[in-house]
Design a protein that fits this description.
The protein is mainly alpha-helical. The chain contains five helices and two strands. Strands 1-2 form a two-stranded parallel sheet. Strand 1, helix 4 and strand 2 form a beta-alpha-beta unit. The longest helix is centred in the N-terminal third of the chain and has 15 residues.
Length: about 130
């Protein structure tokens, strides 16, 4: 769902910064006096103010945007232009070199598509070369 700006900041392929995620986990578990993030979600759900659904992506994005705004880099992605969301092969210098030359900034790799790609190069889209 779009946020207040009309943009979507959650995608199927999203980069998480390990140190930020661990800091967020630590903060939540301390505040809710539990040992895991899942326990905090379960404990929170018992309260009326937590009855809505929460996505970890939303939580992470809200946290990193507020605490580390300088570490957030939002890009407008257009599938097939600067984003390849249905790729099979992401290894190999040839394919990744072609993507760099074409200005692709995010390439979604799907190992389960490799066998299809090996059978027929035209069946799996979003290849840069």
């Amino acid at each position: 769902y779009p946020n207040a700006t009309g943009a979507r900041h959650i995608v199927h392929h999203m980069l998480f910064q390990y140190d930020v995620m661990m800091e967020l986990h630590s903060l939540i578990t301390q505040r809710w006096d539990v040992s895991t993030l899942w326990e905090a979600f379960r404990k929170c759900h018992r309260h009326d103010f937590c009855k809505s659904r929460v996505a970890e992506y939303e939580l992470y994005f809200a946290y990193v945007s507020n605490v580390y705004p300088e570490r957030v880099n939002l890009e407008h992605l257009v599938n097939g232009v600067n984003y390849m969301g249905s790729s099979a092969i992401c290894s190999g210098e040839r394919e990744m070199g072609c993507c760099r030359e074409k200005g692709v900034i995010l390439k979604g790799c799907h190992d389960h598509r490799i066998k299809i790609w090996e059978r027929s190069k035209s069946e799996v889209g979003d290849m840069c070369c």
